[in-house]
Please model this.
Amino acid sequence: MPTFTTADGTRLAYHLRGAGETLAVLPGGPMRASAYLGDLGGLTAHRRLALLDLRGTGDSAVPADPATYRCDRLVDDVEVWRAHMGLEHMDLLAHSAAASLAILYAARYPQRIRRLVLITPNPSALGMRATPEDRLAAARLRADEPWFAEAFPPFEAWLAGEAEFDEVFMPFYYGRWDEAARAHDAATEEQSNDEAGDRYFADGAFTPDATRTALAALTAPVLVYAGGCDGGPRPYLARRTAEAFPRAEFAVQPGAGHYPWLDDSEHFVRRTLAFLDGDKGATGDGAVSPPVGRTPA
Model:
């Protein structure tokens, strides 16, 4: 397991899986160990994944100053990691809450990004975030599922601030509530650093207007990838996220939740590789995804 030391002396670990060209990967949570990403649906057959354990998670050390868990404070950890791996510029994939970290990194170090992939992103760094209404609308798409009647009322109460988080509504985060999804969900508690997660979005982490302005210097292509059944983000919010970048496209995986590589790994790998390999418009299923801001002819 390779490690490196950050500017403040914290030892961070990352995990290498697969073979081929390096794809740097940032886990979400926020502040969840990278183990939940697995092989990203089999992407390791085509790329060498370098999966970072952010400070205080997984095999990385706990920092001396817990204030450094704040998202913007993690940007330089990513830059030190890139230099440590010897990459002049890199392909970077970020999932969920880590999308905000990747966005801040791209804004501060635009020249270091070759291609950027944001999977079911939380775009708080851009001043946007999924609303309770978004999540409820997505949840209602699952009304025919056998677990819906039990899961929806506590989910609605939690989103209204009237109840505590309840494992019973975790099926809403997956496109298929099958054995694989249950096993994936069961590992969540031991993979997450709750204190770090609470500090990740702390006041002062984001300056959306400045970030949007800085992103004008990003010449790298960006893919924003949403799940058709995901409530955070819903596809419309993923499209708005893509509009913040000079060169971006967005894709929606039908029937997928917040972890699309679990719901249809073949679709996920095919679409992601098409983008990473430079075939910017190909969806892998015969359709074409036009750049954001344009409509098909």
About this structure: The beta strands are 3-5, 11-17, 22-26, 48-52, 90-95, 113-119, 222-227, 248-253.
